[in-house]
Amino acid sequence: MVQRPFWPGTDTSSTRMSELYVSNATIKEILRSYWNWALDWEDITKAPVWDSDLGFGGNGDASLGRPIVEGHCIVDGPFAMLDIPYLDETWTPHCLSRGFESGESLVSLSQMIRPQALETLFRQSDYEKFNLGLENGAHIAVPRSIRGDSALFTAPSDPVFFLHHTQLDRLWWTWQRSDPQARMMQYRGLAAKNSTENAALDDIVPMGGLAPDIKVSDIIRTDTERLCYIY
Predict the structure, then answer these.
(1) Number of helices and strands (H, E) in the chain?
(2) Nearest 5 degrees, angle CA 107-CA 112-CA 113?
(3) Which residues, listed in sequence order, are joined to residue 98 by a DSSP beta bridge?
(4) Which of 8, 41, 54, 161 to pair with 200, CA 20 to 30 A apart?
């Protein structure tokens, strides 16, 4: 496994690995990129990921049009003025928008992604407490700092969404590997939001027709033939 900058001169990292698929005896090289925003916690809005040449473009331009969830059209980088059709489930054609948080609100959100906050989570031995701590901390802090399209269920409209969630996956992977015997197969809590049923490894993850539905137990760890990746 070789770690290298995602772009030269930035703190956004990616992992390269070779994966052997025994079924067809071919080797595939896969890049899994993530944004380690813990390196940028003091001011997430100045992170290298927003670079207009080597990154994803920066903040929205408040002089252009009406605001979109406290954001405005992005005017630099590879996704400048990108057309987005939906806001949540509503057909609302608009440009990809961001509206970086500032002041005391940004300072407050930054506390959720600082390295010390993550270290506290990693010391948590119970999966449910770790999961809820990550969910109600770093997971929401980043999109609330970016705002615009990132603040909605259609947040994947902003490609940075995927770097953020691969980072969350990497943190879960790191938590599991810190004590594999006790943590690798931990999975508990409520089965879903507003559910009264407890989560279980036999639960089915619906894939919405994009792939066959799958059991949690088949994807709870990344180093099996099913997923076959590490960070």
Answers:
(1) 7, 9
(2) 95
(3) 72
(4) 161
